[in-house]
Amino acid sequence: MEDPKLANLAKSESAGMKKDTSSSNRNSNDVESHVVVSEDATAGLIDPAAERALCRKFDLRLLPILAIMYLFNALDKGNLGNAQTAGLSKDLNFKTGQYNQIVGIFFVPYVLFAPPLAMLGKKYGPARVLPLLMFCFGSLTLLTAAAKSFSGVFALRWFLGMAESGFFPLVIYYQTTFYRRGELARRLAIFYAASNIANAFSGLLAFGVFQIKSTLVDHPWRWLFIVEGSVTVCFSIFAFFYLPKTAAEARFLNEEEKALAYRRIQIDSSSIVNEKFVLKEALKIFKRPTTYGFLITEICLGVPLQAVALFLPQIVQGLVSDTVTINLYTVAPNITGAVMLLVLAFTSDHLRIRFPFVCLGFAFTFIGFITYAAISDVHAQIRVAYFATFMMCWGTSAPSVLLSTWYNNNVAHEGERLTLTSVGVPLANLMGLVSSNVFQEKDAPKYLPALITTACFGATGCLVAGSLGLYMLWDNNRRNRRQGVNLTAKDVPTLQLRDGPKVEEFRWFL
After folding, report:
1. Is the pLDDT of residue 27 over 50?
2. Which of 1, 190, 241, 304 stands 20 to 30 A from 338 (CA)?
3. With contact defined as beta carbons under 8 Å apart, do 140 and 78 qualify?
4. More confident site: 231 or 9
5. Domain housing 83
6. In total, how many domains does the chain have?
7. Is the residue at 5 inside a domain?
8. CATH code: domain of residue 245
9. Residue 168 above 80 pLDDT?
10. So where does this one cross the membrane (predicted)?
11. 3-state DSSP call for residue 411?
């Protein structure tokens, strides 16, 4: 429900919108006829200097903590690949194909439990549920260090997938309650860049850990799980007490800043701020045809995304043979992936357009994988082959953020937004089942069938995202011609858009 206190604070300055939006009992049947409010009009309700100062506070107080949380999330998810290069399968006597099963089983609970955990997160607050999920997956990482058999690791990966399933959808939703639509991509990019940094840091950490000579454990890879799991658990306790439940409860904001935060989200993010979650209403998102375009694009994204996250060390292993050097070679591609993500996300926010940059990311994916696959002797052309791994990382980083931002920008109903995210993000991760099964040990070290398969998913994603974007552009123009106006998404405040495309003034955020 809306916060009555903030609604009253905002009411007097929202009068220029010609509608009262403060009633906590308002539903779609009570909404008055839609009145288009231009960007100039809405801008007059908010002091730009005060808004910039508020965003700086959010950036300094929220983003670093969320980025660190996601860094540990990515570390705990992806450390299996580093452990594998240090002999995990051999040390635990895995049979042929069992490592792929351990990689793949993670994604089954990840998909099954994401929607219910995200809905619980909406009910009890992301600021409390996110640290609890972090505590769980950190503890499971610690337990992995004690695993003695295939069955033990298999069971732990199942529960790890369950614990991590609601994390990313909840973080995205949490940030949409603090930032405008045109501010979201670069913030999510900074947050998501932690994943690339985690992949790079994981290689460096593995390099250091594998040098440990100790009689306390029987295999060096156990230290990787001990170190990462311990730090994750400790940080989750800090985050539980630090993160504000909502802007209304943020101790670092005064009353005027809380009211400003409320108005910003009503104008350019949500139709009803902090609306109570109702499953029946949230499921209406699946009545929109474009929803399935977004989900197909998520599927196409998932295969290359998980291929890089899970198998980049194995791909690089085709270039070098030393275990230590392999992990070092994964650092630079992941770092440049984070840089490319930030460049594309900041540019996308500046231009207030998403789909061309999503398509560009998929193009990088296709070129990177198909180039590596086309090289007959990677040792003879090691520079070209290694550069192809950079393009793989560029192509998987940017679309992952921009795609989630794109469909969140086009859904003003908070329940629908959370539901779509909690299905779309896990669906992309479910494609890890494809990645984990196409990268077969018998195809090592080149993994040619896997490279070609992944490249095809990249090409298809580019085609689907481009088609969806062109449809939105055509539909916006059609609506403008019918109404005799020239509106874009920024010209219509989201408080009017609870019913999505059914609203005559609705414009797609391209």
Report:
1. no
2. 241
3. no
4. 231
5. 47-271+284-502
6. 1
7. no
8. 1.20.1250.20
9. yes
10. 99-120, 132-150, 156-176, 188-210, 222-243, 292-312, 324-346, 353-375, 387-406, 418-439, 451-474
11. coil
507 within domain boundaries: no
Residue 52: what residue type?
A: R
Torsion (CA) 464, 470, 476, 480 in degrees, nearest 10: -160
Dist. CA 426–CA 302, nearest whole Å: 9
Cα atoms in the 13 Å half-sphere on the side-chain side of 493: 27
- Unique residue bearing structure tokens 């590596």: 372
Proportion of the chain above pLDDT 70, given as a percent: 88
What is the distance, to the nearest Å, from the Cα of residue 77 to the centroid of all Cα atoms in its chain?
Answer: 14
Quote the tokens at residue 144. Answer: 């992995």
Contacts of 171 (CB under 8 A, 6+ apart): 66, 69, 70, 126, 130, 191
pTM of the full predicted structure? 0.78
Burial 118-130 (b: 16+ CB within 10 A, else e): bbbbbeebbbebb
Query: Within a domain: residue 21?
Result: no
Both structure tokens of 381? 């052309």
Instruction: Using alpha carbons, select from 410, 507, 499 the residue that is nearest to residue 31.
Output: 499
Contact 68, 194 (CB under 8 A): yes
Contact call for residues 184 and 405 (beta carbons, < 8 A): yes
Average pLDDT over residues 120-126: 89
Q: Is the peptide bond before 501 cis (omega within 30 degrees of 0)?
A: no
Q: What are all long-range contacts of 116-119, with beta carbons under 8 Å and residues at least 24 apart?
A: 116/166, 117/165, 117/166, 117/170, 117/422, 118/166, 118/169, 118/170, 118/173, 118/418, 118/419, 118/421, 118/422, 119/277, 119/279, 119/282, 119/418, 119/419, 119/422
Report the alpha-carbon distance of residue 306 to residue 78 in Å, rounded. Answer: 10
For the stretch 442-445, contacts whose Cβ atoms lie closer than 8 Å and that sit 24 or more positions apart, written own/partner, are 444/314, 444/317, 444/318, 445/314, 445/317, 445/318
CA–CA dist 475, 507 (Å, integer): 8
User: How far apart, in Å, are the Cα atoms of 364 and each of 100, 312, 337, 347, 453?
Assistant: 26, 16, 11, 17, 15
E strand or H helix at 469 = helix 448-483
In a domain, 168, yes or no: yes
**Which residue type occupies 361?**
G
Query: 371, 391 in Cβ contact below 8 A?
Result: yes
Tell which residue, 83, 66, 462, has the closest CA to residue 310. Answer: 83
